[in-house]
Amino acid sequence: MKVGDRHYHTIWLNEDGRSVDIIDQRWLPHEFRIETVRTVDGIAVAIRDMWVRGAPLIGVTAAYGVAIAMLDDASDAAIDTVWEKLHETRPTAINLRWALDEMRAFLRPMPIADRAEAAYLRAAEIAEEDVQLNRNIGMNGLAIIKEIAARKKPGEVVNILTHCNAGWLATVDYGTATAPIYLATEEGIAVHVYVDETRPRNQGAQLTAWELNNHGVPHTLIVDNAGGHLMQHGMVDMVIVGTDRTTANGDVCNKIGTYLKALAAKDNNVPFYVALPSPTIDWTVKDGVKEIPIEERSGDEVTFVQGRAADGKIAVVRISPEGTNAANPAFDVTPARLITGLITERGVAKASPEGLKALFPERT
Ligand code: MRU
Q1: Does the keyword field hold Iron (predicted)?
Q2: Residue 219: CB within 6 Å of ligand 1?
């Protein structure tokens, strides 16, 4: 998407043909910084410490990490080593394992001498596929927004609530939850987005608000606890969120707090949609609550917040008494029964085994 007058992806091959350039998301919205990552260790740090984040982008970054590893050693053992090293960086987003499995399955049958070059090409393909998947998600989600807009009186807008950042920054381009919103805006449909700030890391306040602002999408930032109140007062027409892992039964794991939004939506008859590309479906898992590993991050993310201080510098400040114990589960699971539909690249599925199988018959 555009930043200033340039079109950016979130990750691309550096002109040296070996390293990758990324948008370092730790500094947004205050500073737009590009970093060059040259090593597998650098890729692992960029994923773990969330220079890049969002399930699809984590996957693409890992694919490039495998390519970088192949430059030094393209043996089977080296493929397994980089697989393990990158897989342990973040445990919940299944796109990470999907991309690592893709790369391994693609490279294994090849002569060792051909693997490095082929790995870069496959990583670039995975990145390009992500863009295409998101475009298709956008078209399928747009149809839903159009239906809601058609029921509105002249002058009324479609109010959409979103949680965390499932925007273009979380993917290579377009985003998942934001793709229908961007397309609706391009078509001149009046949409307005309520952006949950998304504590503790504030991906909504820092990233989603930045994206929507850049693209001229009207939006209002709200604290995480405001959504239920807005829904009770008829101020939300639909919720769209992303997901880090969706089970074969349609349970959705996403940023902590998503579950509470889904409960509030159910109680107020507000449609609750999840936008996802098929690499986010974990066909091996049925019960999301019992089976999906939930990342526990440092309590420091709860007891400190980052922002821009009055002197213009980016500052990290403590918000609780020194020594306060903090728990920080990064994701939760929304059971399928609370979900109106899964917006995928192939269409909108019911959040059920049958719904997903109907769209992806090859997985049965
Ligand atoms: O911890 P993060 O910022 O990586 O979490 C991101 C999310 O929860 C997104 O909603 C999810 O990855 C889907 S991104 C299209």
Answers
A1: no
A2: no
Q: Any idea which residue has 């999301």 for tokens?
A: 288
Q: Is 25 a known ligand-binding residue?
A: no
The answer to whether 244 is a known catalytic residue is: yes
Residue 296 has pLDDT above 80, yes or no: yes
Which residues face 21 on adjacent strands? 12, 36
In whole angstroms, what is the distance from residue 209 CA to residue 220 CA?
8
Check 21, 130, 196, 244 and give the catalytic one.
Answer: 244
Q: How confident is the model at residue 308 (pLDDT cuts 50, 70, 90)?
A: very high
What is the reported pTM? 0.98
Structure tokens at 219: 């939006």
Domains present along the chain, CATH in parentheses: 2-129 (1.20.120.420), 142-363 (3.40.50.10470)
- Ligand 1 binding pocket includes 334 (Cβ within 6 Å): no
Say whether the peptide bond before residue 277 is cis (omega within 30 degrees of 0): no
Tens of pLDDT, residues 63-84: 999 999 999 999 999 999 999 9
Centre of ligand 1 from the C-alpha of residue 33, in Å: 20
